[in-house]
Write a structure and sequence with these properties.
By secondary structure, the chain is α+β, with helices and mostly antiparallel strands. It contains four helices and six strands.
Length: 141
């Protein structure tokens, strides 16, 4: 599978502006310096990475639980992607995943074990292996 997205940028870094879109049309949004470094109403690369990571992780966790015979009723995940200025320049060096799930037939320890497996094995986690990925779980039986 190959998925596509495109981005355009016009002008200098601080005064310029850009537009990003996906092939499906699910995302078609402006972005800019302000939205990335100062907060603003447009999207930014880190927000898009966070959305991709939360979605991929949730699917990986659902797959792991289902394979073990415990399909979840629900899983909800948030991802916080940190963009930090380091001595070597700007870097995404930390991602905090927080997930909760309602999974009949297992306990919190089994849920946490499955979540840790999903963190290690979801394709987006693998792609982001250069960042520290932290996980916090909560569970409902």
């Amino acid at each position: 599978m190959i998925r596509h997205a495109s981005a355009q940028w016009h002008g200098s870094l601080k005064e310029g502006s850009g537009h990003v879109k996906t092939e499906t049309g699910a995302l078609d949004s402006p972005y800019g310096f302000r939205s990335r470094f100062e907060g603003g109403g447009e999207t930014n690369p880190e927000e898009l990475i966070a959305a991709a990571h939360a979605a991929c992780f949730s699917m990986a966790l659902s797959a792991a639980l289902t394979t073990s015979g415990h399909p979840p009723k629900s899983i909800e995940t948030t991802a916080a992607v940190q963009l930090n200025k380091l001595e070597s320049g700007w870097a995404i060096n930390r991602i905090d995943l927080e997930t909760s799930g309602e999974v009949p037939g297992i306990d919190a320890a089994a849920f946490e074990a499955a979540a840790n497996g999903a963190k290690a094995n979801c394709p987006v986690s693998k792609a982001l292996a250069g960042a520290e990925i932290h996980l916090k779980t909560s569970f409902q039986s």
